[in-house]
Each structure stands twice: as structure tokens, then as C-alpha cells.
Amino acid sequence: xxxxxxxxxxxxxxxxxxxxxxxxxxxxxxxxxxxxxxxxxxxxxxxxxxxxxxxxxxxxxxxxxxxxxxxxxxxxxxxxxxxxxxxxxxxxxxxxxxxxxxxxxxxxxxxxxxxxx
Length: 117
Prior knowledge:
This protein has 117 residues and is an all-beta fold. The strands form two sheets. Strands 2, 4, 5, 6, 9, 10 and 11 form a seven-stranded mixed beta sheet that branches. Strands 1-3-8-7 form a four-stranded antiparallel beta sheet, with no helix packed on it. The termini are far apart. The protein has no helices and eleven strands.
């Protein structure tokens, strides 16, 4: 099963930017759909953005126009560029992978993003 390792979280002031990275340990990275989820204290985990093997990217309405998901298949890495961060973006962010025809079944350990007002 693919293993995922996130990096890039931290503390930032409102209006600032962060870029999250997720490195995948698989020789067939290009076959996977990749996604970023987040979970804030007391809330359910939600899908923030996803990028399929082919096709259109998806963004949660709460982050449209501020976040950008991208992937580099040569580096087995998916990114989440987060701009204009708001305190409401504070959460643990998780990288996830889905094999073709499967649901999200591989998860990273999570990285904390804290946005101060």
C-alpha cells in the first residue's frame, strides 16, 4: 500500500500563505487520484481539494480561489498552495490517495496548520 508523508504545515498570520507537500512511496503514483483533507477540532474531516489521474480538479467551496492543488508525477508529490489564509483554515491537513476505482484508502500522518488572527 502506498505510504504518504506530508510536510509544510506551521503557524501563519491571517492573509499569509503556506505550501503543503505530500510525498508518496509508490512506483505507480501517476495512477492515483490524490487529495487533501482537513479536520478542525470538534469537526468532521472534510475534503479540501483533489486532483485525479486525469480530469478536473475539485475544490471545496470554502477554499475556491485561495487554494491550488497540483501534482508532480516525476517527483511522486502532490502540493497544496494555500493563499489568503483565514483563521477558519486552522486544522490538521491530511494527504490521501485513491487507486483507480477505489475510495480514499491511503492516508498521511497529518500536518498542523494554524492561522492566527
